[in-house]
Specification:
Blueprint: H1 2-33, H2 35-80, H3 89-102, E1 106-112, E2 116-118, E3 121-133, H4 134-146, E4 151-160, E5 171-183
Antiparallel strand pairs: 1-3, 2-3, 3-5, 4-5
């Protein structure tokens, strides 16, 4: 019986040794042989993380630039519709004279009229008279409408021009009231 027992213990020890050797082989294979692919995977993962950090930095820079552009556009939009506080009357009339000349019109006169005030608004009015052909006058009126300054034609009368020669010159006289707008301070000191 001792022999059988010794044999059983030997078989159990042998089975334990085989199992231990198998486990050591699996561990050695995963640590040494498969280790190269793990190192490669770790390097690839590190490169991916570094690339992602670079892209994130670029996105943050782009976001900062777009935020700056957005703030500028919002400021431009807020200022774009505001009436001027000081009206550059001389500049407006120089521009009007250039526009009239461009459209082959002759400025006959421009005289100031009495200003009108409304809550927060000052309307400075001027009598303006030009002569030329009807198509030229129409183009001139369209140019005033498209102008970038706060001016408008608030009165218009077009009549026959001077009759020279045979009377078929086609020249007309346009009498306009040009209203130039600015914000009013309430004290009438905004007359430009």
């Amino acid at each position: 019986m001792k022999k059988e027992r010794a044999l059983s213990i030997l078989i159990v020890d042998l089975a334990g040794g085989v199992i231990s050797a198998g486990l050591l082989s699996v561990f050695a294979w995963s640590a040494f042989l498969r280790g190269d692919s793990t190192v490669t995977e770790i390097r690839e993962l590190s490169a991916t993380i570094a690339g992602s950090r670079r892209v994130l930095g670029e996105l943050r820079t782009s976001l900062d630039q777009q935020s700056t552009v957005l703030k500028q556009r919002q400021a431009d939009l807020a200022e774009g519709g505001k009436l001027p506080e000081q009206t550059p009357i001389e500049e407006y009339f120089q521009t009007l004279s250039q526009v009239a000349s461009t459209h082959h019109l002759h400025v006959v006169r421009h005289n100031p009229l009495s200003p009108r005030t409304y809550p927060g608004l000052l309307e400075q009015r001027y009598a303006y008279e030009v002569t030329g052909t009807m198509p030229d006058i129409a183009r001139f009126l369209k140019a005033i409408e498209d102008a970038k300054f706060w001016a408008d034609v608030s009165y218009l009368r077009i009549g026959a021009g001077t009759q020279q020669g045979d009377g078929n010159s086609g020249e007309r006289v346009a009498a306009l009231t040009i209203s130039i707008f600015s914000s009013s301070r309430g004290d009438g000191s905004n007359r430009g």
